[in-house]
Amino acid sequence: MAHEWAKGHGGVLPSTREEKRQFKELLKSRMIAMDEDNYKEAIDASFKVFAPRGINADLQKIINDSCTEVGSNSSDFWVMMAALKEFIVNEGCGEAPLEGSIPDMTSSTEHYINLQKIYQAKSEADFLVMEQRVENILKKIGRDPNSISKATIKSFCKNARKLKVCRYRLIEDEFNNPSLPELQKYLTDEDYSFAMGFYILLRAVDRYAANFNSFPGQFDGGMDEDISRLKTTAVSLLNDLGCNGLTLTEDLINEMCRFGAAELHSVAAFVGGIASQEVIKLITKQFVPMCGTYIFNGIDHKSQLLTLQVQAANP
Amino acid sequence: MANSTAPKSRSRDLDKLLLRPGNLVGPNFEPGAELRDDLQQYARVLVVGAGGLGCELLKDLALSGFRNLDVIDMDRIEVTNLNRQFLFRLEDVGKPKAVVAAKRVMERVSGVNIVPHFCRIEDKDIEFYNDFNIIALGLDSIEARSYINAVACSFLEYDSDDNPREETIKPMVDGGTEGFKGHARVIIPGVTPCFECTIWLFPPQVKFPLCTLAETPRTAAHCIEYAHLIKWDEVHSGKAFDPDNPEHMMWVYDAAVKRAELFGIPGVTYSLTQGVVKNIIPAIASTNAIISAACALETLKIVSGCSKTLSNYLTYNGVEGLHTEVTEFVKDKDCLGCGPGVLVDQLDTSVTLQNFIDMLEEHPKLLLSKASITHRGKNLYMQAPPVLEEMTRSNLGVPLYDLMGKVSKDTLHASGTINKDNKKTSGLRKLRVVFKGIDVVTDMDMAGGAYDQ
Fold first, then answer.
1. Secretion signal: which residues (chain A) (predicted)?
2. What is the CATH number of the domain that holds B429?
């Protein structure tokens, strides 16, 4: 159907709203009875025909990363990435290797299996091209062309559209060299105001503790003085970070002193749960670990994940 | 660190939030030692479920200053629970979850008292649920949530301006998890949406069409369900399939393999067979910890008012990185659960209780059969247990109008079996009953609490 449409429209698939509607009408007109499930499924799934071609923005960013200029020290991941880059430009015609699986759909068993086999065959063919390119690149950088296993390359191809690169830096770097644009963006965005406020205040509290040998609000009595001292500390911290002139909500500063370094079990349990989850992901090397600083806000639960590092590529 | 001159009390950290005033607090927050003491002495919390979420909830609540907890769960401990239901050990397998969970937390946190209830949630009187300040749910099914939601909402009364009456509001905190995903929500009946208001949030359950299973299978799951739902009955006519019986499971697996070979479909494994047949959703300890912690925190805040609360739905996703989001859903004013009730009007004053009960079965918004009826806490007719049935049977022949104190309109509660889409579930519904032909009186002095027009 898509082919038919393209033939009648200069080789191009539906893109405008009107064209998409017309395409669905075309599908409907082919129905013989009102309840043919396979046509109904086709109409529901027609959005897949309209989906933009090519690779998505996330993958494009990784392709453009300077690490794809591989050398003898490059990791297996970047070697395969370099091969993927070549594939997309050449055999892929702008697309990544075919993943190979198809969703279930109403059909006779025979037709379905046949379609499945066609997809699997193309996926296998794409894999073989990738494998060859990987071997060539390995040779070029002076490594054993068989040093990356078939299984690894296959898995890479299958997951090509979901690849992610997570970069991390030392806490020391984050403290001494935060990304100013990110900080300013968060401090002025209403959705982030509490979370960002707490980030600044948590660091201000650490500074306060170092200066005064106690936490703000730790003791009953003298609360007003603590609030004032915490505010001063927070302001000077903001200045050190290069965010002069930006302010924090008074309510948050007061609340921080009210907390008086209290540790509530449920808050600890929540944060502990998050931390343990990340540890498991890192140890088992499964799923995608979190990238950034998660600020938990137990007041209205509008917690936020802050990316406070400059997204520079480090080879 | 400076030497603390504050007394080393277990409540030291909690006191900061309960004893000190603040700006980001709940509407009726009254900080002070009395609040902390009331929380310990009088506040009662019910935890529904003693499984993955329930164990965490009991621990969290016990360590959050609550001393009077109840827990209800009808299940016994199984080996597969042990990876996350941390209150249980290998030697506990077979024992009731509620009983063991209560015992373990009480051993670990001195001063807390937990009353376990080893039974179904439907087995409890509706009034049982009214004794708690708040109900925390750690359930794993839509049906169970729907039931508790209906019970909590049944206590809700509206005043003549159609505003919820505060003293009849029974708050709930509901948590749910599935692998790396989870949600926590706050339900304040009459204020926030209740469970029924947002029932559309749930995607329909996956059911394969019969013709796919019987004639055109395409996936391994189709072959498995064929063996499980069709072939089993053909060969074992009459004998019930028991998913916990390894011999039965093995039989289904073998039959599924044969079918798959016949159609050239790959992928049938024993593990997949178990997953499909038992509808297994993997459970991770950390997700349960996170969601329960959020729920326990909200429970503390709602009961004490010590901080603003979640408004009103939190979703969590840990598959790719970490993502949490708060959505503020809006109440459905015509909701069957938390709304003012299903209207049953134009009732003749001669209609008997029996007539009324029969009517409920046909009422399109109710479809409620075998109903038991209560009016302002009084049992008009109870289908069970036999003792109560006998006691209330004589009411069946009495006009409903008389039984309700001869008022022109009032609220009733009906519980029974709801028949919807060929499925039968226990349900509880609030009914707004209006009699026809009664002059509406605007006089404020009306006996029996009739509404004013």
1. none
2. 3.10.290.20
